[in-house]
Automatic annotation (TrEMBL):
It comes from the Bacteria. Its cofactor is Zn(2+); Fe(2+); a divalent metal cation; Co(2+). Belongs to the ribulose-phosphate 3-epimerase family. The gene is rpe. The active site is at D36, D173. One of its GO terms (biological process) is pentose catabolic process. This is Ribulose-phosphate 3-epimerase. Substrate binds at S9, H67, G143, F144, G145, G146, D173, G174, G175, G195, S196. A divalent metal cation binds at H34, D36, H67, D173.
Length: 217
């Protein structure tokens, strides 16, 4: 279904070749590019900071979707906005003031996303929906690519109803593949992040078939 956007996560790309990896997935059908920022504190893994994200920006021609798995968030919002993030998503679990965080993201000129871990209920974002452009439903516990999908279909349905006619995307992150995607789309998701299902351990340098993998989702 082409009304569903596919956002490959470059967490599963070749880390020595991000420019070519980004251009390859975009040329082969990616709608957005998803960038996973991890701090070794909020999640048990470390990835990219603002200078790396600014370097990715030079290659992204679609939408750079930056998922912050960091705590605290607020001191870094301006740096990620200046690095060129189109969307900045923060976790509802990352601090006591997610409402302020979403205001600050919009204030910095980016679109604001709010992410929920698998153990966090849909209702935790109920009072944030007028401040958010995107709700990201995690279908793995964040930190690593290639984990087993955790079914959150009921949460997606509840969020879809709660959002109503507001212009808020529902994004799914974790374990998205051709077997899990259709049910998520039916439940109301419109943006699917996919890392291992797009890159499949391959890279642009060995001509991995990203287009086929994206089309299959
Ligand atoms: C997990 C990240 C995801 C991850 C998804 O913490 O937020 O974006 O890269 O990877 P897959 O699609 O392999 O589950
Ligand atoms: Zn992510």
């Amino acid at each position: 279904d082409r009304s569903i956007k596919i956002a490959p996560s470059i967490l599963s790309a070749d880390f020595a070749d991000f420019g070519r990896e980004i251009r390859a997935v975009e040329d082969q059908g990616a709608d957005w590019v998803h960038v996973d920022v991890m701090d070794g504190h909020f999640v048990p893994n470390i990835t990219f900071g603002p200078p790396a994200v600014a370097a990715f920006r030079k290659h992204v021609r679609t939408v750079m979707d930056v998922h912050l798995m960091i705590a605290p968030v607020d001191p870094y919002i301006d740096a990620f906005a200046r690095a060129g993030a189109d969307i900045i998503t923060a976790h509802v679990e990352a601090g006591p003031h997610i409402h302020r965080t979403l205001q600050a993201i919009r204030g910095a000129g980016a679109k604001a996303g709010v992410a929920l871990n698998p153990g966090t209920p849909a209702e935790s974002v109920e009072h944030l929906l007028d401040l958010a452009d995107l709700v990201c439903v995690m279908t793995v516990n964040p930190g690593f690519g290639g984990q087993k999908f955790i079914d959150m279909t009921d949460k997606v349905r509840r969020l879809h109803a709660m959002i109503g006619d507001r212009p808020v995307h529902i994004e799914i992150d974790g374990g998205v593949d051709p077997t899990t995607a259709p049910g998520l789309a039916r439940a109301g998701a419109d943006v699917l992040v996919a890392g291992s299902a797009v890159f499949r351990g391959g890279s642009v340098s060995n001509s991995a078939p990203y287009g086929e993998n994206i089309a299959a989702i």
